[in-house]
Amino acid sequence: MQYTVLALGLALGVSAMPSPYGHSHHLSPRDCEEPSEESSSISAGLTTATSSYLAPIETSYFPAANVSSSSSSAAEPEMTIMPISSSGSSTSGGSLPASSGSSALGATQTIAPGESFDGGMYVYDRGVSCTGQEEGGDSDAVFIIENGGSLSNVIIGPNQIEGVHCEGSCTLTNVWWSAVCEDAFTIKLQDAGEITTITGGGAFGAEDKVLQHNGAGTMSVSGFTVDNFGKLYRSCGNCDEMYERHVIFSDLTATEGKSLAGINSNYGDTATFTNVNVSGVGDICVTYTGNDSGDEPEKNGSGPSESCIYSESDITEL
Ligand SMILES: *[C@@H]1O[C@H](CO)[C@@H](O)[C@H](O)[C@H]1NC(C)=O
Ligand SMILES: *[C@@H]1O[C@H](CO)[C@@H](O)[C@H](O)[C@H]1NC(C)=O
Ligand SMILES: *[C@@H]1O[C@H](CO)[C@@H](O)[C@H](O)[C@H]1NC(C)=O
Ligand SMILES: CC(=O)N[C@H]1CO[C@H](CO)[C@@H](O)[C@@H]1O
Fold this sequence. Notes:
By secondary structure, this protein is mostly beta strands. The protein has one domain (3-317): 3 Solenoid (Pectate Lyase C-like). 4% of the residues lie in helices and 40% in strands. It contains two helices and 20 strands. A hairpin with an 8-residue loop joins strand 17 and strand 18.
């Protein structure tokens, strides 16, 4: 059965929303994002995309299809999707779950502050080729989660550039990236004391970074799987606005990568690790001397320290 999906008048809703943040910070390249573009770049109007399945595009702007019922009309998944519990999954090491279908979005999908989007295990991308390590902007993201928003049960596909952007206190549950491009997920904005939570999910094939932290506060990651990557997490080392940042990893399975976390010890960053299984990973935690002048940050050390909080018993070599 063939359905034509309007993907989406959502763009209209988005462009009508004033950004609560105004212009984003100007960030320098390398370990940061480029200056992000205004969300007005999303206002491509009513774009249409075709999909062979009814895409479960449901947001606060368009109370359209019921995600759970529409996804059940698609082909049965070949394998079991990772179970999700509200307390979070402690399983990791899984492979990419089967999808319910796919949807190439004509415009970035924005999840409004405090709203949730359940993707019903569809693959979402933008129908564009990855541009390698060239930094993209907000308009290259597949999803932008505004402050306090949630995204769940989504597979970010290969035909996209910037993955998912977060504007503070985001909740990601069972979100997967089948082929990371420039990076998978970026906290663009976040206040000190705010926490972004990633539960379950995983990412594959990141040439460089997977999780990028440019705002302040904490990123907490549990039950995550990562395979074939450069850095799993990087606290921006040379953004124009530098903050103290924290990352907490628990129940992580990481295979074939350079390092799990890169943090700036001179800004008071910490990375904490509990129940981490690794194979073919170079460093668990690397400290850098970050700066706000755009210079390439210098490496300071690696291994357990006041900044890199773990003991050998927290790490299991598979
Ligand atoms: C959406 O679908 C689920 C499962 O089929 C059902 O339990 C729920 O009531 C539906 N919600 C709406 C708003 O139709
Ligand atoms: C790590 O491996 C051990 C032993 O193989 C297993 O018991 C544990 O559940 C694994 N942890 C994760 C996070 O997968
Ligand atoms: C470098 O690391 C050492 C401990 O490993 C720490 O005492 C020192 O403050 C760090 N320097 C900077 C600039 O982060
Ligand atoms: C503010 C700060 O730490 N700036 C430093 C950025 O990095 C360069 C090169 O390591 C240093 O020379 C700056 O002092």
